[in-house]
TrEMBL record:
Residue intervals passing through the bilayer: none
One Pfam match: Amidohydro_1
Encoding gene per record: pyrC1
The name this protein goes by in its record: Dihydroorotase
Organism annotation: Psychroflexus planctonicus
Amidohydrolase-related domain segment(s): 52-429
């Protein structure tokens, strides 16, 4: 039995409304929301002036564990996650060995059970090596199957480049989300050759969105969507980066009934191609950050529900790996600690509402991946909760980063909101710069 936690006088953002109320947490669950009388044995948190949000579910991260723990691991990155209000994460399959079997998947769950401060889930990878095995297995219990990141292992692992394989998966796998990285590798390679001929190894990073172009993204997404519609299959397009692609998605269907879904990463709502000049390869992602017009189109599509969820694609590398010439620089950057702050900053700039932020970062990931009893401040649900001081200013600096890689493309950025408490399964894990690490997170279970 844990000591009940009573959060007093919070401004609760939940289920498209904002209300002032108290929240009572007992035995890891929300048990009451309203005007609640305090008892002597309660742990009372005065939340007057603070925002109370459901814990963020970041449904696309790369925590590098196992295989690449020199730059990140589940302990360090989950610590960064809870610092940033992320109470649950879903990790991608491009660790080493690649997560291409149930035994490797189960091993990752075991690692996380010992190391993670946040709740955790994992995608099963799929490529030509394990295709037949995946097609024969029961995948109904999996959060998703995905090819994301596996193209780093070897060429030809992107499903977007293999419509024959993608169609076979859609024919057989009606019980599982297929989450794909949508870029046409052939188009990217053609662009790489063109710019390599002109510049050699020293291609200006500003050309990254020309190499990983709108055409490469749009043609891959459209082909995959057309195939999924043909077979009435369940498709999720990861990390959307172009305004043109948003035209391929619908807002006419409730999320729980959608067959075709997508997401946007916080960096694509924050940065644009104008930032390459200052930040260089530090903001080199695949797919690439594109134009200011794309940024605005993505935000518009998020607000009007063509884009379903917000993720970070948290992908830490060492600075040595990042600060190389164009072709040698690794793609990806650490973001999980700052994703919620970015979105709250956009709220402060009147670009998005608090209710919409909570819908896209908390509610919808739980709905999309059918995660049991999470993503909402609701009686009987797991007590995953974040408290935010909406008035406190602070600046991102190396001394307040929790990433193992020790850097961020946001260094020097001033935020005007600060997270004060993160509660995971009813346990205070983070509070005003202090961590309570005795109780680890739990595996995400499908409803």
């Amino acid at each position: 039995m844990t000591i009940p936690i009573l959060i007093k006088d919070a401004k609760i953002i939940n289920e498209r409304e904002i209300k002032q109320a108290d929240i009572l947490i007992e035995n890891g669950k929300f048990v009451e929301i309203g005007q609640i009388k305090a008892k002597s044995h309660y742990n009372i948190i005065n939340a007057k002036g603070k925002l109370a949000l459901p814990g963020v579910i970041d449904a696309q991260v790369h925590f590098r564990d196992p295989g690449f723990t020199y730059k990140a691991d589940i302990y360090t990155e989950s610590k960064a996650a809870v610092t940033g209000g992320v109470t649950s994460f879903i990790d991608m399959p491009n660790t080493y060995p690649n997560v291409l079997s149930i035994s490797i998947l189960n091993e990752k769950y075991k690692i996380a059970a010992h190391k993670s401060l946040a709740n955790f889930g994992f995608f099963l990878g799929i490529n030509t090596e394990n295709l037949d095995e995946v097609l024969q297995m029961d995948t109904s219990h999996l959060l998703a199957i995905s090819d994301d990141g596996l193209y780093f292992t070897k060429k030809g692992n992107l499903l977007a480049d293999r419509p024959d394989i993608l169609e076979k998966i859609f024919e057989e796998k009606k019980d599982c989300i297929v989450a794909i990285h949508a870029e046409k590798e052939a188009i990217v390679e053609e662009n790489e050759r063109k710019f390599n001929t002109k510049y050699g190894e020293h291609v200006p990073v500003e050309l990254h969105p020309k190499i990983r172009s709108v055409k490469a993204c749009y043609s891959a997404s459209k082909q995959a969507i057309d195939l999924a519609k043909k077979h009435q299959a369940r498709l999720h397009i990861l990390h959307l980066t172009t305004g043109k692609e948003t035209e391929l998605f619908s807002n006419q269907i409730a999320l729980k009934d959608k067959k075709i879904t997508t997401e946007v990463c916080v960096q694509n709502l924050w940065f644009s191609d104008k930032d390459y000049k200052q930040l260089g390869t530090r903001i080199k992602w695949n797919p690439a950050i594109k134009t200011e017009e794309d940024r605005q189109s993505l935000l518009k599509a998020l607000i009007n529900d063509k884009i379903d969820i917000i993720t970070t694609d948290h992908a830490p590398h060492t600075l040595e790996e990042k600060e190389k010439t164009y072709f040698k620089s690794m793609s990806g950057a650490p973001m999980v600690q700052h994703g919620l702050n970015i979105m709250l900053e956009l709220y402060k700039k009147n670009q998005i509402s608090l209710e919409k932020i909570v819908e896209k970062m908390c509610h919808n990931p739980a709905i999309l991946y059918k995660i049991d009893k999470r993503g909402f401040i609701k009686k009987g649900f797991f007590a995953d909760l974040v408290l935010v001081d909406p008035t406190k200013h602070w600046t991102v600096h190396t001394n307040n980063l929790k990433y193992k890689c020790g850097w961020s493309p946001l260094e020097g950025t001033e935020f005007t909101t600060q997270l004060t408490h993160t509660i995971v399964n009813g346990n205070i894990v983070y509070q005003n710069g202090s961590y309570y690490e005795g109780i680890k997170g739990k595996a995400l279970i499908k409803a």
